[in-house]
Amino acid sequence: MSGTLPAPLAEIVDDFAAVEGQDKITMLLEFSKELPALPAGLEQAAMEPVPECQSPLFLSVDSSDRSAVRLYFSAPPEAPTTRGFASILAQGLDGLPADDILDVPDDFYTELGLAAAVSPLRLRGMSAMLSRVKQHLRS
């Protein structure tokens, strides 16, 4: 895997690596409950949809301060896997410098060890979320 994981994201990956099997899904569901609410003034309608996700997911990238990029995600409560992935990215990358986010390997999610428990289509959704964040930072 090329690139490096910023400390907050590396810690999340380590937490997932420390548990086995069904406990990984339990941890993902816990993350889904921790997805930060959208800030006042940011409406889902103003956010970018991520159509690669199986469930409705919207994101907003505020890179006006490239030393502290803000990431916002919106996904319905009935989509816990998608919410969990969004929460991992929010908790692992929000507030970091743009260059640190751009350095995250596109396939970092494979280190979470969820391939046996989550469909490849859902895993591609997480990859798409990170890819879209990076597109915003490159433009």
Automatic annotation (TrEMBL):
Residues 14-135 form the Fe-S metabolism associated domain. Transmembrane segments: none annotated. This is Cysteine desulfuration protein SufE. Pfam families: SufE. PANTHER family: SUFE-LIKE PROTEIN 2, CHLOROPLASTIC, SULFUR ACCEPTOR PROTEIN CSDE. Belongs to the SufE family.
